[in-house]
Design goal:
The protein is an alpha/beta fold. It is about 25% helix and about 20% strand. The protein contains four helices and six strands, in the order βαββαββααβ. The chain has a six-stranded mixed beta sheet with strand order 2-1-3-5-4-6, with helices on both faces. α1 packs parallel to α3. The protein is globular, with a radius of gyration of 15 Å. The termini are far apart.
């Protein structure tokens, strides 16, 4: 998947049923993509009106809160066994053709925080440091931003139940 594609638009799909926090972070991650590529993907709540020929999708979904994730699971395209019943775990899977023929990057979490951590791992993958917010560390600009199969992961459960950043 090429997030900087001149042929296809990239959209972040966050369904209406998603947690509010997931919706807010999707907006922040689109800003991260813009920092790297100069082009900000649009956030959408459905694929209605979009065509697979000219659109690629980043689906941000949480177990139990996403009909689209349930559909991908039912089709056997996404295996959620590694995140089911776990605390703050996420998975990322790249699909060539799903949800009616779209190229889809699926970021799914076992819970709200798991989904959010997965979304921020996409930011990290494209070169945006968390220090961008606290230390003015700007990411390297790229004309081409390709997401490869190396992004696919099932994260581990945290060793500490409640993680935080303390000053």
């Amino acid at each position: 998947m090429e997030l900087t594609s001149k042929v296809k638009n990239t959209v972040f799909l966050v369904e209406d049923s998603a947690y509010e926090g997931v919706k807010r972070i999707a907006d922040k991650v689109t800003l991260d993509v813009e920092k790297v590529t100069g082009k900000r993907p649009q956030c959408v709540t459905s694929l209605e009106g979009l065509q697979p020929e000219n659109t690629q999708v980043v689906l941000c979904a949480t177990m139990g809160k996403s009909d689209m994730l349930d559909a991908l699971k039912a089709e056997g395209l996404v295996d959620v066994d590694g995140v089911t019943g776990k605390w703050e775990v996420y998975g990322i899977r790249l699909l060539n053709s799903a949800l009616g023929g779209f190229e889809v990057l699926v970021i799914f979490g076992s819970d709200k925080r798991g989904t959010i951590y997965g979304m921020f791992s996409l930011s990290e993958y494209i070169g945006v440091s968390s220090l961008c917010y606290w230390g003015d560390v700007e990411p390297v600009k790229k004309d081409e931003l390709v997401i490869g199969k190396d992004i696919e992961i099932i994260s581990k459960e945290p060793s500490v139940k409640y993680r935080g950043f303390f000053i």
